[in-house]
């Protein structure tokens, strides 16, 4: 809807830090489906939800018996539920609108990464990737965990062993594997330490396909783009690889089964690899050949056009942005603090990065004023155009009166009601999406009112309307300046030692709660006049006393 | 008191209609509400249609029931007359803009407290609106600035130096990403709500002053009223005015207009000749003139569900009149 008037010439990626959010020490962030809410997990075990439009806190989720740092947060598809994994090996499922805990389990190891099933509207199923064991599916309703296979054994027709138990037995020691759901949530893509991507059907715990990653080094992160068309892997060989997903959007399982059947004469690993080659193809590779740095928290932009990765070097806060064709378009540099998490806004060109100090930096486009916006008939030109004037352009008396022929058909039907379908709503919008948490105004207390009154009156009398009053993250300390400015004014006019008058004015202000700045100044002026007349010394002390 | 002559004779159906458009059923006077001691600057139905709020220069705001039109509560607290009010989307809160340079957020549920006072403007606050998620409030003032406030904490999120003369109206669009503002300096501008940058200027003549501007329900069109007795509907993406509505009188006051979409599409507006005007949206013809007020009709509001219009008038009248259309 807004597309026609927003300038399409600028690239669609952020450029500068706009502001920062602060709430204790934040460890990880996640946007909800539309990017209207940002969930942040803190080092003290609490989770806070920011309203991204107002940049204020919308809700706090805190459990009294959980004091361990949060390792990851994940939203359900429609934003009703939030999954939080913590360093005390627990997984907690919260209901966002009520702020109540739905379920909580404890695992054998600390889950580094936990994701709710993106296919269900009220998921109770999630994928957890612990520090040193295979990724597992945790079902909150049934209360069981299922380990997922991390490799395909070399022997033919041996399916990965099923392990269904109340508490997960730790299998053979695996190095950490990364895993993610596909878009509809019926498959899990596992990236293992051998540099292979396994496509696993988690319900039957079977590996359906295998895709070897070039280079064969361990896969650290594996992420899908929002539309499910592209897959990204971050490997130990400091390369980010983009794969194109060849599987269809719906009914993925049946198409995979079809593919499996069509491959004849092959068994075991070979069969997996062949099926795998029909599921994913390597599209691009990104690496920094100069610094050869490791990447941290790579992800796609909301529309899948850009790929962003943070540098994992300590002491620097660098964010690399590539377009999908493989060109590096931008390197964003932040303050000298290590980067620990990154998220791209699902809709707007905004990036949110979490630094080691616990601050969340919001990166956005640097907006320049569009000069053509100030007059209705201005038009921005790419380059100079030759203007050929009309014959009678400079005539004093124009030959014909300029009649602006309205090219608009005034009888056209106007539709003021229908709204186009959102690009972000899926066809099965049976469940109402939770976009915003209701903003309930916090009632003012009396003390706050008195303080505010004094502040505002001083501000009104001292200076004209100030910019950006009190934004989050910006230091807005107006308490000292207004009174100081007033002092300056009276000082300039009187050029006397104003310490007595300063005391008077201060006393006046403290007494009257409703007195406007103007009346106070008038009073002081009156008393000042008296003093001038009555006093002996006409010496102008220009000394600037520091009387505060 | 039923008033005579509500203009049935003027309700001539446009000649050019084809067979399928329904004939216009005229509105008739239903009720007169008295309760204010001075001119009423604004009336608005809540979004759920259960409540009606009215703001007046007598420094108070009254909450009425929209089912039986009885007085529920009178909000007192402002130090000067109230120029505008707005409802939150969930109909729980109202916000009023006053000449005492503040805005107040009131609870529309018992015990009807004043929850917050928003301070920051340095002159009369003239217009106010919530955004659709109702986590932000936009206000326009005689100090020529637009301020955006966070509802939860009352903090001023942004100040936009918008115009060179007092602002007359501000309104968010359907998804809260744009703000339209009109001012006495004759311009009507569209702002990016997130960044505070000007995206477009619709009119830029020094006169006549723009007295009212609002988005259509789907956010694609802007209805602009100017103090030369004209109402214009503009497609803001192209910047062209596609419909013009005239016939009423509007040269002095900032009269509000509304879209009526419950039963046929109309534009409703007050007028300085003491009537409420209804135009057909597509054909621009005057469908009806509702008579009964005894002074200029300053504000109109359409019920979100039922075919009812509330109108309020100036000093000599001090009443709110409810008009209904029998379906």
UniProtKB/TrEMBL annotation, chain A:
Please state where this protein is localized. Answer: Nucleus
Give the residue ranges for region: Disordered: 461-548
InterPro entries hit by this protein: RBBP5/Swd1, WD40/YVTN_repeat-like_dom_sf, WD40_repeat_dom_sf, WD40_rpt
SUPFAM superfamilies named in the record: WD40 repeat-like
A Pfam family annotated for this chain is: WD40
Q: Which UniProt keywords apply?
A: Nucleus, Repeat, WD repeat
- WD repeat copies, ranges: 70-104
Q: Does the keyword Nucleus apply?
A: yes
Residue ranges under compositional bias (Basic and acidic residues)? Answer: 499-511, 519-528
Biased composition (Acidic residues) is annotated at: 539-548
Keyword Nucleus among UniProt keywords? yes
Q: What PROSITE patterns has UniProt attached to this entry?
A: WD_REPEATS_2 (PS50082)
Highest taxon above the source species: Eukaryota
Any one annotated GO CC term: Set1C/COMPASS complex
Supply the name of the protein.
Answer: Protein RBL
Which taxonomic lineage is given here?
A: Eukaryota, Viridiplantae, Streptophyta, Embryophyta, Tracheophyta
From TrEMBL, chain B:
- Asked if the keyword Repeat belongs to this entry, the reply reads yes
Domain named WDR5-like beta-propeller is located at 32-324
Q: Which domain of life is it from?
A: Eukaryota
UniProt xrefs under Gene3D superfamilies = YVTN repeat-like/Quinoprotein amine dehydrogenase
Q: Where are the WD repeats?
A: 33-74, 75-110, 118-159, 160-201, 245-289
Is Repeat one of the keywords? yes
Example GO CC term: the record gives:
Set1C/COMPASS complex
Q: Which keywords does UniProt give here?
A: Repeat, WD repeat
Q: Which Pfam families does UniProt cross-reference here?
A: Beta-prop_WDR5
Read off the SUPFAM superfamilies from this record. WD40 repeat-like
Q: Outline the segment boundaries, as ranges, of region: Disordered.
A: 1-20
CDD domains recorded: WD40 (cd00200)
Q: Name one GO molecular function term.
A: histone binding
Composition-biased stretches (Low complexity): 11-20
Gly residues: which segments have biased composition?
A: 1-10
What name does the UniProt record give this protein? Answer: WDR5-like beta-propeller domain-containing protein
Annotated organism of origin? Brassica carinata (Ethiopian mustard)
* Taxonomic classification: Eukaryota, Viridiplantae, Streptophyta, Embryophyta, Tracheophyta
């Amino acid at each position: 809807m807004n597309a026609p008037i927003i300038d399409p010439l600028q690239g669609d990626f952020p450029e500068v830090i706009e502001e920062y959010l602060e709430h204790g020490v934040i460890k990880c962030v996640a946007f909800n489906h539309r990017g209207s809410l940002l969930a942040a997990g803190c080092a003290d075990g609490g989770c806070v939800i920011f309203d991204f439009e107002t940049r204020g806190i919308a809700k706090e989720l805190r459990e009294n018996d959980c004091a361990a740092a949060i390792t990851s947060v994940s939203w359900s598809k429609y934003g009703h539920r939030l999954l939080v994994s913590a360093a005390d090996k627990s997984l907690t499922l919260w209901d966002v609108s009520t702020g109540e805990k739905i379920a909580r389990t404890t695992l054998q190891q600390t889950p580094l990464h936990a994701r709710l099933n993106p296919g269900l509207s009220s998921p109770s199923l999630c994928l957890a990737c612990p520090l040193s064991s295979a990724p597992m599916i945790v079902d909150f309703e049934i209360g069981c965990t299922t380990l997922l296979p991390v490799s395909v054994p070399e022997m033919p027709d041996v399916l990965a062993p099923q392990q269904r138990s109340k508490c997960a037995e730790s299998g053979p020691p695996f190095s950490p594997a990364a895993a993610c759901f596909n878009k509809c949530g019926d498959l899990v893509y596992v990236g293992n330490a051998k540099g292979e991507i396994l496509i696993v059907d988690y319900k039957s715990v079977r590996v359906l396909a295998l895709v070897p990653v070039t280079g064969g080094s361990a896969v650290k992160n594996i992420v899908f783009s929002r539309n499910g068309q592209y897959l990204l892997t971050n490997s130990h060989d400091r390369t980010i690889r983009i794969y194109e997903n060849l599987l269809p959007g719906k009914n993925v399982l049946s198409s995979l089964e079809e593919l499996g059947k069509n491959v004849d004469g092959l068994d075991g690993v070979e069969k997996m690899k062949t099926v795998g080659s029909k599921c994913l193809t390597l599209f691009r590779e990104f690496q920094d050949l100069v610094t050869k740095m490791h990447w941290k928290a790579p992800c796609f932009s909301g529309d899948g056009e850009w790929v962003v990765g943070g540098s994992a070097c300590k002491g620097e806060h660098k964010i690399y942005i590539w377009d999908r064709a493989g060109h590096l378009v931008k390197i964003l540099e932040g303050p000298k603090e290590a980067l620990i998490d990154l998220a791209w806004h699902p809709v707007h060109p905004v990036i949110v990065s979490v630094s080691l100090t616990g601050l969340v930096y919001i990166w956005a486009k640097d907006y320049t004023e569009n000069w053509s916006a100030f007059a209705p008939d201005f038009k921005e030109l790419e380059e100079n155009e030759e203007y050929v004037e009309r014959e009678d352009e400079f005539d004093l008396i124009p030959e014909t009166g300029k009649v602006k022929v309205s090219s608009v058909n005034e009888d056209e039907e106007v539709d003021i009601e229908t709204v186009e379908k959102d690009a972000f709503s899926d066809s099965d919008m049976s469940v109402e999406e939770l976009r915003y948490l209701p903003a309930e105004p916090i009632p003012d207390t009396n003390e706050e009112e008195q303080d505010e009154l004094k502040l505002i009156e001083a501000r009104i009398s001292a200076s004209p309307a100030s910019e950006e009053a009190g934004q989050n993250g910006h230091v807005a300390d107006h308490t000292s300046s207004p009174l100081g400015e007033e002092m300056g004014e009276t000082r300039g006019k009187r050029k006397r030692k104003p310490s007595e008058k300063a005391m008077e004015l201060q006393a006046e202000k403290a007494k009257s709660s409703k007195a406007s700045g103007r009346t106070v100044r008038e009073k002081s002026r009156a008393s000042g006049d008296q003093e001038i007349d009555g006093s002996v010394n006409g010496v102008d002390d220009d000394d600037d006393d520091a009387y505060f | 008191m039923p008033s005579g002559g509500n203009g049935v004779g003027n309700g001539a159906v446009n000649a050019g209609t084809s067979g399928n458009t329904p004939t216009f059923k005229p509105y008739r006077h239903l009720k007169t509400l008295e309760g204010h001691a001075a001119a009423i600057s604004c009336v608005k139905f809540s979004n759920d249609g259960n409540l009606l709020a009215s703001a007046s220069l007598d420094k108070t705001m009254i909450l009425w029931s929209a089912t039986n039109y009885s007085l529920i509560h009178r909000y007192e607290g402002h130090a000067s007359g109230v120029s505008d009010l707005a409802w939150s989307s969930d109909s729980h809160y109202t916000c009023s803009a006053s000449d005492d340079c503040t805005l107040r957020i009131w609870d529309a549920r018992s015990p009807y407290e004043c929850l917050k006072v928003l301070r920051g403007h340095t002159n009369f606050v003239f217009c106010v609106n919530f955004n659709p998620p109702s986590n932000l409030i936009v206000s326009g003032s005689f100090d020529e600035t637009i301020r955006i406030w966070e509802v939860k904490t009352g903090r001023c999120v942004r100040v936009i130096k918008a115009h060179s003369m007092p602002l007359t109206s501000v309104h968010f669009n359907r998804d809260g990403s744009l703000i339209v503002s009109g001012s006495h300096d004759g311009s009507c501008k569209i702002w990016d709500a997130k960044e505070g940058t000007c995206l477009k200027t619709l009119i830029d003549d020094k006169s006549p002053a723009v007295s009212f501007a609002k988005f259509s329900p789907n956010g694609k069109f802007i209805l602009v009223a100017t103090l030369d007795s004209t109402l214009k509907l503009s497609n803001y993406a192209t910047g062209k005015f596609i419909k013009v509505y005239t016939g009423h009188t509007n040269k002095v006051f900032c009269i509000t207009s509304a879209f009526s979409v419950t039963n046929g599409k109309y534009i409703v507006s007050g007028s300085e000749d003491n009537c409420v005007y209804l135009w057909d949206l597509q054909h621009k013809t005057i469908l009806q003139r509702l008579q009964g007020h005894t002074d200029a009709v300053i504000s109109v509001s359409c019920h979100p569900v039922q075919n009812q219009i509330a109108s309020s008038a100036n000093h000599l009248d001090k009443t709110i009149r409810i008009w209904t259309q029998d379906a």
